[in-house]
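Sanity check record (used in CI):
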Amino acid sequence: MEYFYKYILLFSSTLVSVNCIMWNLEPNTQKCLREELQQNVPVIGEFEVSEAPRQSVDYVVTDSKGHILAKRQDISKGKFSFNTESYDTYEICFTSRVSPHEKGITQEVKLVTKHGIETKNYDAYGEAAQLKPIEKELKRLEDLSSAIVQDFSIMRRREEEMRDTNESTNSRVLYFSVFSMCCLLGLATWQVLYLRQYFKAKKLIE
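Expected output for GOLD domain-containing protein:
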């Protein structure tokens, strides 16, 4: 049983994503982070930017179509949240702005993002529903199991789509190869007949 719980925890760490990243943002530069997310996934982000005199940092969250999901200017510390509307690549960009008359300094940016069941506050949920600690943990494991089943379902559907695409491509390649061979055989036959007729016209062969 102990090994089973270890396996569940190890697998859940691959399914539930909590990303913490820190980098240095140079003056008048932009840093963007991208991630592919499934449909209807809640996302929460928490950021912190080191202070710098007469400098400001903006952030914007967009999808692949350019729709703005979250945006804020002149940030120092805060949070953002949104729900994904479809399977897409989502991007968050941090932009440093410094006056042309200022030299500017490097700022440190820290970003923590959570999505999936990690965005749920089970402590608050347990207090509201008056759940015992074991009941709260069982609720979290129930949500985790549902997320695992859903993730497997999505993976199986994508595998089926990829298999269908491969089979369709193989069929088209086969038909194209047969068509090319027929064209080459027809062209070779026409060349032989043409040369034979030409040589007969020149009386080179009977």
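The chain is about 45% helix and 30% strand. If this sentence no longer matches the regenerated tokens, the check is flagged for review.
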